[in-house]
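User: I'll paste a sequence; please echo it back and then give the predicted structure.

Assistant: Echoing your sequence first, then the prediction.
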Amino acid sequence: MGIREINLQEEIPHYTKEQVYGILIPTIGKTLEELDINRVFDKTVMNPKVTGIAGDVIEQSVFGYKANNKQIPDLNVDNEDVELKTIGIQEKSRGLWYAKEPCSITAVSIPTIEQETFETSKFWHKSQRILFVYYHYLSKMTVKAAGYKDFQVKNFYFYNCTDDDKVIIASDWQKVHDFIADIHKRYPDKESRKKEYPNLSTVVNKNLEYLDTSPKYPNAPRFRFRARFVTVIVQSSINNTYERSDRHYFGINDVEKECIEYTRRYKGMTLNELCREFGVDNNISCKQAGEKIIAKMFGGTKKISQIEQLAKFGLNGQIVVLNKNGGRTEDLKLSACPLDFSDFQIIDGEQKKFEDTDVYSFFNDYRLLCPVFQEHPRMIVGPDGKKMITQVIYGENTFEGFKILELGTDEIMSSVRASWEEAKRLVQTGELTVTVMRRKDGSVRYTAKTGIEMLQTNLPKALDNVIFFRGTGKDATDKVIVNGLKMLRQNYWVKGTYVVELLNKMKYLGEHQKG
């Protein structure tokens, strides 16, 4: 009967996949309140902060089975055990959907986990096949349980753990297992062990790729899929965002090894040479051409960050071009990290803490994979035929190697918090301003594409902080309204000189192997 005993199998509702489709397809577009035929929401009257209400509605009112807290999968579909997970998703810019938060799987059984192997673990039983039901978490603020009534079911998806994912998940699980087993080996008494368990979330989580554990001990910790991992699943099933290359990575170290090999092969080659090597049009900018070249190195065709395997590791590709003095030629836009003005709303006297925001999660969950190119400017005779001027021909830029920048360091997070707090202050005090941009002579500046007046805000700029805000959009008409003021959508940016300063402290991947 599979991975568990027959008596446990008999407790699980059995379905065919066709039956599941027949149950869930009619739910798409309906609110959780409309689906709640068994009045699950009634319990929110006495317990307004009850957790898991969306999942309870799907389990009890849609599938019609009673909730249980046993560490076994919820369903049996076509004779395979399947865990049912109802998760909130949110729409960001350009219709992309993101997981609202990490996906909790099952408890970390601290007293007994050292007797388990991964293959026999309760976690693996519940995570190898998952039926995700997505609901649209419409609110930008955390809502109480009754507030879920208006949230609509968006879609559903059967996730089957791939062989490659299994290797990585097993490695993550083993690290948790070994950490707890080591504590039990070194500390025979319970009180000493209790002092060590909190390091599970503060130390071990930093070394996990697809998983983390939360909450922090002494609260009962649970295994979770990281939000970035769940977001890849969501976007693959809804947006078709990613392409899967033919590469196999069983940890971030495998990506680093491939970076080292590409550096060995291509270091010193010009952009023109690399364009010919990889069949890329060299009539586009260095950044665009470099992005396509690096994506092709890793077996993709689009962008580095659209390669599924890299995205699951939280690797965002950012081409870095150094000028002749070793400085970066431009600031760095974090395209996946827009400023969410709803972070600053006060609802029922409550407001978001910085630690509960998407930007906090982004910086803690993602890394920058930085392919570095070096400019080689020429000295040429100017138009007057006399004066020598410097000219950069981007096709002559050379590829130098790769560096990976962790975004969640204390230093970077301090700067992120400072800009976020200042933006919050400006919005909440009404001091946020939008003014027309002018030249030094006082004349108004207009956009070349639309002929509309160029506007600027008093949000933190590069002069104020290394993490700052800059407007972005399809064109100057693509605006949002904040405090009654029209402005471009705002993105988090990182000052280019700061990125170079951080990268200069690091060696290129593989450089330490020299000598």
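The first strand starts at residue 14 and ends at 15. The chain has a mean pLDDT of 89.
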